[in-house]
Amino acid sequence: MGLMNIMLFHSTYGLRPAVHAAAARLRDAGHEVRVPDLFEGHTFDTVEEGMAYKDEVGKDELLKRAVLAAAPYSDQGLVYAGFSLGAATAQTLALGDAKARGLLLFHGTSDIAENAAVDELPVQLHVADPDPFESHDWLNSWYLQMQRTGADVEIYRYPGAGHLFTDPDLHDYDQAAAEQTWKVALGFLATL
């Protein structure tokens, strides 16, 4: 319990002000936070532009950048966190890091490797309900698969919120859902 070392990954929009604001909120709560720029300075105004860039760079290269960003700190026991695409990245890294302390997912999940196994890794997911990228069927399957890995999973759903509802600069923003998300997420971090 106490200070966590958090690796916070941005969404497909890139490293925008909302990600820095989220990092500041976590730092204000006493945590150490790093926000790697997997898009190397590129930011986007639409999901489509961000996805096109992600596809251009390639999933393997983005994952490599994420691993290189986290590697110098992983011995400390990181909490991996991220928004949407960044959540998927955080999940992949956390499931592959035996020293991971926790996984905090905002607006996204990822496929789970068949052989993934963790020792009661605390996982918290915050997601819109419904979410265009995270269907109920997918989330139910994801939840069961994550439990099979050994993770201790909590899912918080926010009815009527947009996909990236914690980002005040986007149309998806939902202030009430965002504030509730941060309250619950900070409580989760305090228990690790």
UniProtKB/TrEMBL annotation:
Keyword Cytoplasm attributed: no
Metal-binding is among the record's keywords: no
SUPFAM superfamilies, alphabetized: alpha/beta-Hydrolases
Source organism of the structure: Streptomyces sindenensis
Keywords: Hydrolase
Segments forming domain Dienelactone hydrolase: 6-191
Name used for this protein in its record: Dienelactone hydrolase family protein
Pfam annotation, one family: DLH
GO molecular function, one term: hydrolase activity
Coiled-coil region list: none
InterPro entries: AB_hydrolase_fold (IPR029058), Dienelactn_hydro (IPR002925), Dienelactone_hydrolase-like (IPR051049)
The organism's place on the tree of life at top rank: Bacteria
Spans through the membrane: none
EC number: 3.1.-.-
